[in-house]
Design brief:
This protein is mostly helical and 111 residues long. It contains five helices and no strands.
């Protein structure tokens, strides 16, 4: 490669590096800045809200007289049982726990 194509390539790189970057701030819509995530609420507040809300047109009840949200109660019970089981059981076995507690030695050449 001769010096002229190399100089042209270097000049093109310098010109491209000095060009202005397009304004991306104006491309963001106001809705993207405030997505409006739902608030986290206690289960009891969710039940009250479910009782107060009118059912959707054409909605069907799967379980009669089971309360506003039997699936919430069932899921909460399953999650509580899982949490209790994880508290009782050792999540990490003894060999893994010992390995995790060992000191790590890093030699200067590895850095």
């Amino acid at each position: 490669m001769t010096i002229r194509p190399l100089a042209a390539l270097a000049t093109a790189a310098v010109v491209a590096g000095c060009s202005s970057f397009p304004q991306l701030d104006t491309a963001v819509t106001p809705g993207a800045l405030d997505p409006g995530f739902p608030a986290l609420m206690p289960v009891d507040d969710l039940r009250v809200a479910a009782d107060a809300r009118a059912p959707s047109p054409g909605a069907t009840t799967l379980v009669a007289d089971a309360g506003p949200a039997p699936e919430i109660d069932a899921r909460a019970t399953r999650l509580q049982a899982r949490a209790d089981r994880l508290r009782r059981e050792a999540v990490i076995d003894a060999a893994a726990r010992e390995r995790l507690n060992q000191d790590v030695e890093i030699e200067e050449q590895d850095i």
